[in-house]
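Crash report, auto-generated. Payload:
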Amino acid sequence: MREDICTIPISEAFEENDGCPICRMRKTVEERILDYIMGAAMMEPDVRIETNRLGFCKEHLGGMMKKRGRLPLALILESHAKELCDNIFSSSYQKNGLKAKQVHSTCFVCEKIEWGFERMINTIYLTYERDKEFRDLFDSQEFFCLEHYSLLAANSSKKVMRKYYSEFNKALEETVSKYLENLHSDLEKYCSMYDYRNNTENADWGTSKDSVERAALFLTGISE
Ligand SMILES: [Zn+2]
Ligand SMILES: [Zn+2]
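Recovered output after restart:
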């Protein structure tokens, strides 16, 4: 499989500055992989070997079913089903069950996303260390979702960011803590608006009206 399918220019995701840039990056990679296996990958036997072995999770098979064209999908699933027929039922009942469980727990798309994603996170650290423009872009993000804040903070290291390790983490933490504090006060305000004393026609909701949706986005990232 071509490696560049799983990598995108990271600054593109940061330039948009609307929601979590890491969620956006992940979504872009995911879409590219889905398009790829339904298109160009049909001509690559090594991809078919992997899709036969790993199969697909519910989310990604669902994503493939939403794409145009049933024949590419049918061809992929035909050879995956053939491999299951040939390999699963060759041992004891219990072992066969475990083999099926193993296939059910893996996904070609998930595996490729993880592979590309890990590299992109590393590229973020490296670019932050080297590129002043990217540092400004990173520092001015509106927010990072909880999952990606934790990922960026937990994996950052002084080995990769010799000069800018502290600046990176300070900026990251400031962005997320400021966002979370505002989110909390909006949620507080939202709850208070259900009090009958505030329940008037001209009640001022401030910035709290979409706070529940924003909290869901912060806590779980992009869902579709
Ligand atoms: Zn995110
Ligand atoms: Zn998957």
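Post-recovery validation: Residues 3-220 form one domain.
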